[in-house]
Structures are given as C-alpha cells and as structure tokens.
Write a structure and sequence with these properties.
Elements lengths: L1 H48 L3 H28 L2 H21 L3 H30 L3 H28 L4 H25 L12 H11 L3 H31 L4 H28 L2 H22 L2 H15 L2 H12 L4 H30 L1 H4 L2 H22 L1
C-alpha cells in the first residue's frame, strides 16, 4: 500500500513538472514573439508618434537598459525566493507591459514601458534557465535546448504575426494588446498550476548583489571571458540592429514595399531557428569557434555587397543566409562562458549579459543617429561592420585558446 502511494506521488510530481514545463514553453514563446514583432511595427510607430530615427533608436537602447538592470540586480532575488513564484510575478508584469505599450499616449511613456519590457524579458530568461537547470540536473542540457527552441520559434513567430496583423488592418499598438490577451491566459494557467504543485524548491542561498558584483569583477579579469563578452556584445548588437531597422531601411531607405522588409526579417529569424537545430551537427565536424569565425567573415562580405546593391531579393536571401550562418552564436557563447566557470555558471552568464546589454544600449542609439544624419544606406552599413568585428574577435579568441 505504501509502495503504491509512493508511485502515485512520483507520478503526480512528474505530471506537475510536465505541466509546468509546458507553461514555461509558452512563456518563452510569447516573450520572444513580442521582442521580434517590434521591428515590423517600427515604421507605424514612427508615424504614430512623429519620431525621428534617433528617437526610434532609443527604444532599443531603453530596452537594453532594462535588461542590464535585471541582470545586475536579479540574481540576488532569484536565489532568495522560489523561482516559480518569481516567474509568475515577472510574467504578470510583462503581460501588463504589453497592455501599457498598446495604450501609451506619448513617446516618453513608451520609452519607460520599453525599459520594463527589456527588464522582464531578461529576467524571465534568467529565471526559467535557472529553474530548468535545477529541476532537471544531468538532463538540463536537453531541456535547455528545447526551451531555446521554443524561444527561437517565438522569435520567428513575432515578425510573421506583425505582418499578418498589418494585412488584417490592425494598428501597430493593437498587436501588443493581442499578445497581452494571450499572455493573460498563460499567466492564469501558470498560477493555477504552481498553486497546486509540490515541486521541490532549492533553499535560499547567501547570494547577494555585493557577492555577484565581486564575482563579475573577478571574471572580467579573465582574458578569455573578456573576448567572449565582446563577441557577445557585437553579435547581439548586430542581431538587434537587424530586428529593429531592416524593415525601416527597406521601406524608407530603398523605397521598396514594406512586404520585402517584413519577409526579409521573417527569413532572418527562420535562418536562426535552422542554425540552432544544425549547430550540434556542425560541432561534431569542426570546432564551433572556427566555424563561426569563417561564417561571420562570409556573412559580413555578403551583407556589405548586398546592402550596397540595395536589391530587395538579394537582401531577403542575404538575411536568411546570415541567420543560418550565425544564428547559433548567442547560446554557444553563453555555453563557452559557462564552460570556463562550471561552478559559477550564473555569474558567468550575468557577466556576459551585462556587457552585452551595455553595448546594445549604445549601438541601437548610435545606429539611429547614423540613419538620421548620414542616411539610411550609409547608416545600415554598421551591420556588416559589427559582423566583421565578430570575425576579428573570434580570430583572437581562437589564437588565445590555442596558446592556453
């Protein structure tokens, strides 16, 4: 009788964990969707608030400020309170932000909401990754890959949804409200599930902001980690620049139909999804650092040539190829950083993410200024420059790895 009770308890816990995992898949999907949907809606946002390019650039910058803040102060909270409850609270805040963006009456309030959007995005990613890592132990790699697959699919769904919303005649802010409605259902389901769950939570640690900052300072003295942080900074700057600006560039810089820019962005994220599925296959045949170095160099050349030509079809093809060639870079960079410090994976991730947040804050604003003062065609060339800088850093990183 006691044995049957234990079996029933284990079965119940397994069902609860699966239900929680499915909810986390949904959360990852939706916050990725909203993040990549924004680029499609930028031209409408510019007209709605009568914004300049540099003002639009600040949207990405303020998002990165929010992300930076979450990574700076979020670690201490994550280790002091139950992660599932924190996920529910932060996703509820994220859902509220969707409604707020959809109803923002003025530009400056919109910027404040994008700070919250960046913070909740980054913190949800941190919390979900930490929970899955703790809950699945030795199987964490498999489940983390599945989790990132849902994030990638959500990233692809974002521009597709943005395009469909435009074709359906929805105003840009309605798209955020629609996402908010869907997120509300996920929040309700998630709260219901965790209120009845008996999942074991890790005990609060003595983790503190002071200790986090001390560890980050220590890690930043490591030359290898410095290179990885710079690589992540330039790569994510390039990815964010594509997401925010390619539709606007095609429409206003080249005078082509917005459907070309929209389709190019969809294919860029399609390429990233493909890249993350084929990365393990590539890794078995060639060290990923060497592959990524060659891929970044080729991608930079392709972007430079295609953007100079300014042909819509070539841009679509180039962005798909760029996504396929470089799309697995971010999770791989984080994995390389964690491999350097297997006992400090959270701090290593936070270190890389903090440097990346600072860089994307600046780069998004700088690109907006370039677009405004030297023109769309010249400003967009910052994208291949960023990819080429990734190539240079990878070259140094490979040599540094060989010496050590």
């Amino acid at each position: 009788m006691q044995k049957n009770k234990i079996i029933d308890t284990n079965r119940t816990l397994a069902i609860q964990m699966k239900t929680i995992l499915y909810c986390l898949f949904g959360i990852m999907f939706f916050f990725a969707t909203a993040a990549t949907m924004t680029g499609i809606l930028i031209p409408e946002m510019m007209e709605s608030y009568h914004l300049s390019n540099s003002q639009i650039g600040l949207i990405g910058s303020f998002q990165s400020i929010g992300s930076f803040s979450a990574m700076m102060f979020g670690g201490a909270l994550a280790d002091r309170f139950p992660k599932l409850k924190l996920i529910a609270i932060i996703f509820a805040v994220y859902t509220a932000v969707m409604y707020c963006i959809g109803m923002a009456p003025i530009y400056h309030l919109l910027l404040f909401y994008f700070i919250l959007l960046g913070a909740t995005n980054a913190y949800l990613n941190l919390l979900i990754s930490a929970f899955v890592s703790e809950a699945y132990g030795e199987r964490r790699t498999a489940y983390m890959n599945i989790m990132h697959a849902f994030f990638s699919i959500g990233s692809l769904a974002g521009p597709i949804y943005g395009v469909l919303a435009q074709y359906a005649g929805f105003v840009w802010n309605q798209s955020f409200i629609h996402i908010g409605i869907l997120c509300t259902m996920i929040v309700g389901l998630f709260i219901l599930v965790i209120s009845k769950a008996e999942v074991i939570q890790s005990a609060p640690s003595e983790y503190s902001i002071k200790k986090l900052l001390s560890n980050i300072a220590t890690l930043l003295l490591n030359r290898h980690l410095q290179l990885l942080a710079l690589l992540c900074a330039f790569y994510m700057g390039y990815q964010q620049s594509i997401s925010l600006w390619i539709t606007t560039y095609v429409q206003k810089g080249l005078g082509l139909g917005d459907e070309i820019g929209n389709f190019a962005l969809v294919l860029f994220w399609t390429g990233i999804v493909v890249a993350r599925f084929i990365q393990p296959v590539i890794d078995k045949r060639i060290p990923y650092q060497k592959y990524l170095c060659a891929a970044c160099f080729v991608t930079a050349i392709i972007y430079m040539v295609v953007l100079l030509i300014g042909n819509g079809l070539f841009i679509i093809i180039a962005l798909f190829m760029g996504g396929v060639f470089t799309g697995a870079a971010y999770p791989t960079i984080i994995a390389m950083a964690c491999a350097l410090y297997p006992n400090m994976t959270g701090t290593a991730t936070a270190t890389i993410s903090l440097v990346q947040s600072i860089s994307t804050t600046l780069l998004s604003w700088i690109l907006g200024i370039f677009m405004e003062h030297i023109g769309y065609k010249a400003g967009i060339m910052l994208i291949p420059v960023l990819v080429f800088l990734c190539t240079l850093i990878l070259t140094v990183l490979i040599r540094h790895t060989a010496k050590t």
